Amino acid sequence: EWEDEDKLKEVFGKFGAVTSSLIRSDAQGRKFAFVNFEKNEDAKKCIEEMHMMDIRTEEDKDKAGGEEKLGPDGHPEGKLYVGRAQTKKEREKALKSKFVATADSSNKGVNLYVKNLDESVDDDGMRELFSSFGEITSLSVKKDDNGKCKGFGFVCFSSPDDATKAVTEMHLKVVKGKPLY
């Protein structure tokens, strides 16, 4: 346990002279610390050896069964994060790029909601109606317990241009006697 600064200096002092250190807890009770080394090379050596060091007890490791659980920040629980202290601007930039990467990976196309479908329309029929506009990444016609169309479905196109083309051409188009919305 990292309860006091003496323990912190003992562990991190192996890498070189520690000029200052500080232990704090966040709102969730998680501990974090700052350690300042006299020499830059000592800090780099510390980062190389201590970053991602497993600090769990053998009992904790057995409970986990070899699985690595990630915390809310994406860092593995029970492993040290040791890195250079960052300025507020650097932290904001890193967080922003992480958020943009997450948003990009979750955007797998443009999903359209199609309503007023005839009860006889199925997935194949829907694909036939929309495939001419571009690549469909997924498609689903919602059905009731009897297997009849509930009157709506979803079509997901790989590109926004294809989806726009589909909306433009299919909006109010009469299919099996009913205008699509």
Describe the structure.
The chain is α+β, with helices and mostly antiparallel strands. It has six helices and seven strands, in the order αββαααβαββαββ. It has helices at residues 5-12, 40-50, 58-64, 88-106, 123-130, 160-170, and strands at residues 18-25, 31-37, 110-115, 136-143, 149-157, 174-175, 178-179. The strands form three sheets. Strands 3-5-4 form a three-stranded antiparallel β-sheet. It has a two-stranded antiparallel ribbon with strand order 1-2. The radius of gyration is 28 Å and the shape is elongated. The chain starts with a helix and ends with a strand. The mean pLDDT is 86.
What is the overall number of helices? Answer: 6
**Strand arrangement in the largest pleated sheet:** 3-5-4
Q: What level of helicity do the residues show?
A: 25-40%
Task: Give the termini separation.
Answer: 62 Å
Structural class: alpha+beta
E-strand count: 7
Mean pLDDT: 86
How would you sum up this structure in a few lines?
This protein is of the alpha+beta class and 181 residues long. The protein has helices spanning 5-12, 40-50, 58-64, 88-106, 123-130, 160-170; strands at 18-25, 31-37, 110-115, 136-143, 149-157, 174-175, 178-179. Strand 6 (174-175) and strand 7 form a beta hairpin.
